[in-house]
Design brief:
The chain is α/β, with parallel strands linked by helices. It starts with 14 loop residues before the first helix and ends in an 11-residue tail after the last helix.
Length: 316
């Protein structure tokens, strides 16, 4: 949907087409980061994100994302910069993504399975100023990999780690997500430096099977429209409980309508680290999940393993 726009490192939409979309009401001039406090004002203490024992309200999500956004700015990141975002399905993925939107930094949605070849090539292409990784994931040292990658680039970049970084030159992100001080003042400062809605909001990866994945730029304008249309088509609302099973950086679980669509509708996002039936079914039962998304191979595994599990809350 609307993939013709900002591609590679940010080719602008043709002016006549952009004007037509505005005139039709498709594009509303809203940077994605501006939605955060709209959601918090509407849903407040309702739970927005669930990851194991972590439960974030909409207000928590807005405050934490703002705190991180301002601290990333203090580390030298700003509007128009690009970062590689390689995190598994976790609550930090949501906060980091929204903080980037708030600041005007475009995350490149790398997948947890990507290694040196993909990270080094894509990072050099977009001139990434940071790499955001877990410390370890499934017994693999992502922090070490990230440092090896940034050493190959012509321009300096920071390794930012979700977890317990072991290198003095890494930046630990969890502490930067903790709100302090005057949230209202911070909100106003970030509102004043908000990106233009025509800016690139994020870069997705193509689904090609050969060579380095191509990157697909999406603007705030067209991605907000994408999310809104998907929410309407799937009838997501405040009672929606969406289970994120596929890697969150894919367009499908991220915004079709996925994580962002669920938050847009006022529902609850549940993140699980694995598509294994026992993990998925336990989450569906516990959180009364109403919707999820999966590729056919994963869905077939679920069908074969249903057994006596109570999946009655699922709508689709």
């Amino acid at each position: 949907m609307l993939n013709e726009g900002s591609t590679e490192t940010g080719v602008a939409w043709p002016a006549d087409r952009a004007a037509a979309y505005v005139a039709l009401g498709c594009w509303r001039g809203m940077p994605l980061g501006s939605l955060l406090w709209q959601w918090a004002g509407r849903s407040g203490d309702r739970i927005a994100v669930v990851d194991g024992d972590v439960r974030l309200s909409y207000r928590d999500l807005a405050a934490g994302s703002d705190a991180l956004a301002e601290r990333l700015a203090g580390l030298g990141l700003g509007r128009g910069d690009r970062v590689l975002l390689q995190l598994p399905n976790c609550w930090e993925f949501v906060v980091v993504t929204l903080a980037c939107f708030r600041l005007g930094v475009a995350p490149v949605m790398m997948l947890p399975a990507h290694r040196e070849y993909e990270l080094a090539s894509i990072g050099a292409h977009v001139r990434a100023k940071a790499v955001i990784v877990p410390d370890r994931w499934r017994d693999f040292d992502h922090e070490q990999l990230a440092h090896r990658v940034v050493e190959q680039w012509d321009t300096p970049a920071t390794v930012m780690v979700v977890g317990d970084p072991v290198r003095a030159t890494s930046v630990g992100l969890r502490a930067l997500m903790t709100p302090d001080g005057d949230a209202g003042s911070r909100r106003r400062r970030l509102d004043e430096r908000a990106p233009a809605s025509s800016d690139v909001a994020l870069f997705l990866l193509s689904g090609g099977t050969t060579g380095v994945p191509k990157i697909i730029g999406r603007t705030h304008d067209d991605y907000e429209y994408n999310i809104r249309c998907c929410v309407d088509a799937c009838a997501f609302d405040a009672e929606t409980v969406y289970l994120t099973v596929l890697p969150a950086g894919h367009n499908f679980p991220l915004a079709n309508p996925g994580i962002l669509g669920t938050l847009y509708a006022g529902g609850r996002v549940v993140l699980v680290p694995s598509p294994r039936p026992e993990v998925v079914f336990a989450a569906i039962e516990q959180e009364r999940v109403t919707a999820t998304s999966a590729v056919p191979a994963v869905a077939l595994r679920w069908v074969a393993a249903v057994g006596a599990h109570d999946l009655s809350s699922l709508r689709f």
